[in-house]
Amino acid sequence: MDSEESGKWINAYGSSVNVIESKLQYSSPAESDSNVLRSIESSYALIEKTDFNFIYVECTTEGSSYFDCVFRKIARNGVFALSTSDDPALYGRPAEPALRCYGGLISRTFYAPELAVRLVAAAMARSAARFSKSIEVLLAVTVKNAITIIVKVKKGADSAIKCLKKIKLLAHCSVCEERCFLPDNDGYILSREEVQSYLSCDCNSHSVGRTVLGLGPLWADAIGSPSFVALLLPHLSHSLHLTTFLQDLLSELGCSSCNSVKEDILSNKNSNAENQEQKKEDIKETVNKNFIQSNNSLKRKTETDLCDLKNKINKCENNGSEPAPQFYYNLHKHKPKGAQKLLKVEKIIESLHQSGFRASRTHFDRAAVKTDATLKQLHSVLSQVI
User: Fold this and answer.
1) H helices present in the chain, as ranges
2) What is d(CA 155, CA 167) in angstroms, rounded to the nearest whole number?
3) Nearest alpha carbon to residue 349 among 337, 339, 358
């Protein structure tokens, strides 16, 4: 190899943005390893210099190597953003790298992207708890083989204990891929019959050998904040693709009842644009004194509108405090036997809504549906509409 550039971005709110860039030239395997080590150590040293309110790490290897130094130096109510691509621990076939790097067992499933997100979030929570800190997942998305997770860090031993209790084992049926999180049994070991009783399938009765796997431990709480996604919309409205993606993500996070909030955000953006045009006209028609007065009143009005908008978002989030259902079902995997073709995902979601279940699309898999219905209930709905 001739040359390669590797960079780690560690950004801080405030007056400075620290960037590390290293240009490596490989002449031998031994020299290559030493250069990589020096580059990684410089990144760790930069994090250890001072406390940060915001840290962003972009890497193409295991992101778990940054967790301890990040959560040691991040401030109260700080934000940590991790973006990792081509992580062999999450997308490799063997399960040993994931167990070594993130402390959990994973398997090849149709819901592997969300499985990887919850595994990384669980590793973050355990690392933060070592420093008496807890996390709140604000955003977790996957695009192809890249994962981006944004968490808010809070301090306190009590909050760290509560955060650790949100990490649970996942019971996974290797035959039909039905799954559910096992409850916290106060440290007592569950028998095989008890674990099977939590699953809605009966594959164990007509299959040979063991059918239930224990995956994880995984993050069992919400993997996104509707209020955070809603506040991102006005800042990314210049891109139609990003706006559509965030609106779909809002629906996925169980914020379908918050349409009024999204409308308020869009209307707030339009009103700000109209106010800016009006302000330009006032510059030409009024004197400087009147312009300053109108500018101050416009600033106060904008701050009041933003405050009202945040209150509406918080009210909406409190009313719909129940998180979105965990994981999703791939419709090609779980279609009824003998079905020649499937209906559109929107039609199936509408049928699930009519049956009284929560349902939405998911960005993890465009051919899947996220719902709180069990696999048996999903098969029953699909058999009626197909």
Assistant:
1) 29-49, 67-73, 88-91, 96-102, 112-129, 157-164, 192-197, 226-232, 240-252, 259-285, 288-319, 345-354, 375-385
2) 18
3) 358
Res 92: pLDDT: 65
Q: Output the six-digit token pair for 232.
A: 């991102």
pLDDT, position 278:
59
* Residue of 314 and 7 predicted with greater confidence: 314
Task: Give the model confidence (pLDDT) of 324-357 as tens digits.
Answer: 899 999 998 988 777 777 778 999 999 999 998 9
Reported residue count of the chain is 386
pLDDT of 41 reads 53
Element containing residue 259 per DSSP (H, E): helix 259-285
Q: Within 13 Å and on the Cβ side, how many CA atoms surround 324?
A: 24
pLDDT in tens, 265-312: 444 445 554 555 555 455 445 444 443 444 444 444 445 545 554 554
Specify whether the CB–CB gap between 251 and 261 falls below 8 A: no
Question: Residue 218's pLDDT band (boundaries 50, 70, 90)?
Answer: very high
Let me know: does 129 contact 160? Beta carbons within 8 Å.
Answer: yes
Question: What's the CA gap between 221 and 315, in Å, rounded?
Answer: 20
Other residues' Cβ atoms within 10 Å of the Cβ of residue 207 = 14
Please name the residues in contact with 8: beta carbons below 8 A apart, sequence gap of 6 or more.
20, 39, 43, 57, 58, 59
Report how far residue 302's alpha carbon sits from residue 272's, in angstroms, rounded to the nearest whole number.
8
Q: Answer yes or no: are the C-beta atoms of 166 and 183 closer than 8 Å.
A: no
* Distance between CA atoms of residues 67 and 126, nearest Å: 9
- Give me 307's structure tokens: 């405050």
Q: Are strands 74-85 and 146-155 parallel, antiparallel or unpaired?
A: antiparallel
